[in-house]
Specification:
- InterPro entries: Amidohydro-rel (IPR006680), Deacetylase_Atu3266-like (IPR020043), Metal-dep_hydrolase_composite (IPR011059), Metal_Hydrolase (IPR032466).
- The chain has a domain at about 85-355: TIM Barrel (Alpha-Beta Barrel).
- Helix content is about 25%, strand content about 25%.
- It is built from ten helices and 17 strands.
- It has helices at about 1-25, 130-140, 170-180, 200-210, 230-235, 265-270, 285-295, 320-325, 335-340, 340-345, and strands at about 25-30, 35-40, 45, 50, 55-60, 70-75, 80, 85-90, 120-130, 145-150, 185-190, 215-220, 240, 275, 365-375, 385-395, 400-405.
- The strands form three sheets. Strands 8-9-10-11-12-13-14 form a seven-stranded parallel beta sheet. Strands 3-2-7-15-16-17 form a six-stranded mixed beta sheet. It has a four-stranded mixed beta sheet with strand order 5-4-1-6, with no helix packed on it.
- A hairpin with a 4-residue loop joins β2 (about 35-40) and β3 (about 45).
- α3 (about 170-180) runs parallel beside α4.
- The radius of gyration is 24 Å and the shape is globular.
């Protein structure tokens, strides 16, 4: 009888011990010892972050490692919200003569996002209202990356050439109706139009007004050049986005004049609420524009890649490379993170993203800042040297590790 009682007592103790162990591991993941940079919440200091069921569960100065089923030691690293790339082209496909709109000029998002800390990419007008459903079915719904989009004012999207010059296919009503139908659509895009007229801009803004979303403008260029002062001060609304802010092309007006001075109306436009986006790309970022702009206090509101086949292996490379360029142009680390996370989230009215508040979606980037001698290249194949650069160590999307450069989230194998 005593043996049976002892047996039951031991079983009860074992159950109690296991129960307490399970209770102790109340979080799926704990990130410890990193410097948390969260612009929305004004945090830039050492903080631990706990994640449970895909959401941020706790943010505090010391969370016990015993509470996490998995623990990542982020010592000497930055812990930031997942990066938001405000301008990419990811409507990839095999349709003939379609370029970025279901053709070969766009790229598969998952191949390029997570490895640079990007958890959300916003496609910049690859699709129009005529083919957005194909984009959604074939790419958006099939990608692990969160893919949002600006809808092109051209109904058939960014197919290139004369197709994008068709003013008759720029339908504000159909564009606005489509934007209103899909939660993934966060704005309207105009790009590549090369005529000396304002009709395309006005129709894009009309669609944006009808749908209550921002418009992103990529001036395609014209002869003579259209005035960017007129664009900023008369045509666009506060909250609308001018991408390729530091481009130096002969077909569109530059923000820095031939004497190296930022034009005064550019500062006024930024104060007015025009959003200046980097949109680096394969041909739209020059140090001759960016460096004097930074020196004179004209900073970008958001960093983005303009990812496509013409930029991915050139001077652009990826999101962290562009962020590193601004870091080496003396932009403070916290500011670089802010314009790559919380700022773009606000511009596209997706304030559920870009921060690590308790209850928020657990999209997280763990970054290191490497020291050394590095070369950074612009789209004119000109080089700027720097002594530091961002490197993505780990990316989490919805609380799950989706990229881990050096195995920070893994256990060592049993020798």
């Amino acid at each position: 009888m005593k043996i049976h009682k002892l047996k039951y007592a031991l079983i009860a103790l074992a159950v109690l011990f296991c129960s307490k162990a399970v209770q102790a591991q109340e979080y799926d993941l704990v990130i410890k010892n990193g410097t948390l940079i969260d612009a929305k919440n004004g945090i830039n200091k050492k903080m631990d972050v706990a994640i449970s069921e895909g959401k941020i569960a706790e943010v505090s100065s010391n969370i016990s490692a015993k509470k996490g089923k998995k623990v990542i030691d982020a010592q000497d690293k930055l812990v930031t919200p997942g990066l938001i790339d405000l301008h990419g082209h990811v409507f990839f496909g095999t349709e003939e003569n379609s370029m970025y709109s279901g053709g070969s000029h766009s790229v598969a998002p998952d191949n390029f996002t997570f490895r640079s800390g990007v958890t959300t990419v916003v496609d910049a007008g690859s699709a129009g209202w005529r083919n957005f459903q194909v984009f959604k079915k074939n790419v958006i719904d099939e990608s692990k990356t969160r893919v949002l989009a600006f809808l092109n004012i051209v109904g058939s999207g960014m197919k290139g050439g004369v197709i994008e010059q068709n003013v008759n296919d720029m339908d504000p009503k159909m564009t606005a109706l489509t934007v209103g139908r899909y939660k993934e659509l966060v704005g309207v895009k105009l790009a590549h139009y090369s005529g000396f007229e304002w009709t395309p801009t006005e129709r894009a803004v009309e669609a944006g007004t009808m749908a209550d979303v921002p418009v992103m403008i990529d001036f395609g260029g014209s002869r003579p050049m259209l005035s960017i002062e007129t664009l900023f001060m008369e045509k666009l609304r506060p909250g609308d986005i001018f991408t390729h802010a530091y481009a130096s092309l002969g077909s569109r007006e530059r923000v820095v004049d031939d004497q190296g001075k930022v034009k005064p109306f550019v500062f006024e436009a930024q104060k007015r609420g025009i959003v200046f986006d980097v949109g680096h790309g394969g041909g739209s970022f020059a140090f001759s524009q960016a460096v004097p702009s930074m020196q004179q206090g004209f900073k970008p509101n958001s960093i983005s890649t303009d990812l496509h086949i013409g930029s991915m292996n050139g001077g652009m490379k990826d999101m962290t490379n562009i962020m590193s360029k601004f870091l080496n142009m003396d932009m403070p680390v916290a500011e670089v993170i802010a314009i790559s996370t919380w700022n773009p989230a606000q511009y596209i009215k997706r304030t559920d993203l870009g921060h690590l508040s308790v209850g928020a979606i657990a999209d997280v980037a763990i970054l290191s800042i490497e020291k050394g001698e590095f070369g950074f290249v612009d789209t004119k194949n000109e080089k700027m040297m720097g002594d530091q650069k961002f490197q993505c160590e780990v990316t989490l999307k919805d609380g799950r590790v989706v990229y881990d450069l050096n195995g920070l989230s893994s256990k060592e194998w049993d020798k």
